[in-house]
Amino acid sequence: MRNMKKLARFALAAFFFATFSGFSTAQNIPPIDLFGGYSYFHFSQPSSGLTPYEQLNFNGGEFSVAVAIFHHFSVEGDFAGHSAGTCGNVVNVTCSDFSYMVGPRYTHGDRSSKITFFGHALIGRDQATLLSLQPTGPSPTVDDSSIEVAVGGGADFWIYRHVGFQLGPIDYVFTNHLNNAQGDGQSSFRAAAGIAVRFGGNFPPPEPKAPASESEGHRSWIRPWHKTYPEGQQPAESHPVAKSAPAPAQSTAPSRGMPIHSLGVTAAPQEFDGAKILQIDPGSIAEMASLHVGDLITSVDGKTVKTPMELAAELTGKSGKVHIGLRRGTLVTETVVILGASN
Fold this sequence. Notes:
This protein is mainly beta.
């Protein structure tokens, strides 16, 4: 019970910190997922020289933290505490279990997903207080520690951007308690559910909404895709973009500039490093996408462009999703625009 109280205090402190320390604006830390909730543990107590065989039903709590290291992989730490007030149908005899484990976790989905799924494989230590062969004697229970391995997974349903409901983990659990007393290895399972909190990493901006009068066939969007950026570098903000149109005939291009009608910009070469935007046409995709004069376009769909002519050639005939690489001062990002068929 003391271990369970420590676990509950630790979980509450972690949730308090995540909620009130401004996690929604944290940009320089990796993605972190927290979970805390109820946990059920069905434990198969082994028949040994110290204990009888029993199927014990434990109730308790579980807390976990997963820190992303690359792509969809995280390192997860898991802490769980369980107890049974009536152990093996013996009144006033309490059995308990406390475990701590660590291991890899794989998450399917990203920070733009409403539902994410995860699987993990954990290993650690399990401390159990079990029913003794002599429950009416001076020692009704016996304490033992064991290695513990858990394999399983679950799903997160994100009600808000940072807070959701987690179903799971549902784990197969292996321990080898009382191995020195001729006890067999234990195959058990546990299941948990509770609140999930996530912070850090790159969250996409809210999905833009089109005006009610605008039909689906006459609109385009621009949004940054989920990517990992160097520390302090974030993707340019997304905005809805109208279907591309040729630049106005009366627009006068600056000297040495080349019009790029598909984006609605005039660009100049920049020492063969890309196409530098000199002018942005009113009402163009570039203006509505918050591109700036001075931005340097460096790639299209992953292919490097070194001059405005190469940029125009790469955009010719393209429609749908087009990846545009940008450099704005020290900021390097990639934006996805969806061009209309008329560009």
